[in-house]
Amino acid sequence: MSVGCMRQSWEEQSDEPIETSAEKGVLLVDDNPENLDTLALLLAKSGFDLQIALTGQSALRKARVEKPDVILLDIRMPQMDGFEVCRQFKKDAELSAIPILFLSAADSTEEKVQGFSLGAVDFISKPFSEEEVLVRINLQLRQVEQQKELTHRLQTYQSHFQSNLFNEQKALEYKRHPSNTLGLVTSAMDLISKNLKTPLTLIDLAKLLGTNQNKVSAAFREHLKTTAYDFLREQRLEYAAQLLRKTPLQVLEISEQVGYKHGSDFAAAFKKRYGVSPRQFRQSIQNKQRT
Question: Contact 89/95 with Cβ under 8 angstroms?
Fold first, then answer.
């Protein structure tokens, strides 16, 4: 199935606004006074509860006490650079879930790959655009809130249905209780994840679930605040990144494993998601492993 055909089958757009999340905690980690002044003023006037750290060690200490909602982390710092700070955060069970956005003056492919491989969620380039900074921070905050809500709902659902795996009994259960949209979403998520190599169209997915396309789309928007197509795309690209890291498969083979018939379509989608091509992503990881 071509990407163009899939895009038609799953044609949906998210119209959810991104709003500033007042009273959310931001830990700003930077040793540059000019950067600190600019960002501190912006974040304070935008209603964030701001904490500042000048070193990586200080950032770790403050984070354990303050538990910020998001971290802005400069890469170039003395003693412990941003990559090492990020590594330390991800090793700490109490801090590992906090989203980290790197601040960088460089537009280096290797830096982006290294940052994403360590668990960072985004990069903000210097010089800063105020609008971009706020949009990127609030996007991550919104995703965290949505994930918390979804996790809570899934746990509630699983406690009733024992498992979130799709099966015929669950499909029948949904048909008996069509208002159970969370059950619909969990079943759809499982079907999508199991069929990455031959992606299901929205029509196919709805048929397997015994419902219609509109109900599937509405359920994804209600519980995940995203579209079914966007969820599918994210699952395919995350799995592709995993294969690039952990297997010797050729890029074209990986492209086929995640349902792209044309390598150029896969490369374009991957670069849009990770900021680098699949080959650059793998090469950077291999270079890092050699050092």
Answer: yes
Q: What pLDDT, in 10s, does the model give residues 179-228? A: 568 778 888 888 888 888 899 999 999 999 889 999 999 988 887 778 88
Peptide bond into 127 cis (omega under 30): yes
Strand partners, 104: 125
The Cα–Cα gap between 249 and 244 comes to 7
Question: CB of 71 within 8 A of CB of 93?
Answer: no
Pair 122, 140: CB distance under 8 Å:
yes
Burial 173-199 (b: 16+ CB within 10 A, else e): ebeeeeebbbbbbbbbbbbbeebbeeb
CB neighbour burial string for 200-226, b if at least 16 within 10 angstroms, e if fewer = bbbeebbeebebebebbbebbbebbbb
Q: Give the side-chain half-sphere CA count within 13 A for 240.
A: 32
* Domains of the chain from N-terminus onward: 25-143 (3.40.50.2300), 233-290 (1.10.10.60)
Q: Of how many residues is the chain composed?
A: 291
**Claim: this prediction has a pTM higher than 0.85:** no
Query: How many CA atoms does the CB half-sphere of 160 hold within 13 Å?
Result: 12
Return the H-helix or E-strand segment holding 129.
Answer: none
- Token match 């919104």: residue? 142
Beta-strand ranges (E) seen in 63-137 are: 70-74, 100-104, 122-125
Closest to 157 measured CA to CA, from 183, 177, 191, 179: 183
Per-residue pLDDT reduced to its tens digit, 244-261: 988 999 999 999 999 998
Work out the angle at residue 24's Cα, subtended by the Cα atoms of residues 153 and 137, and round it to the nearest 5 degrees: 90
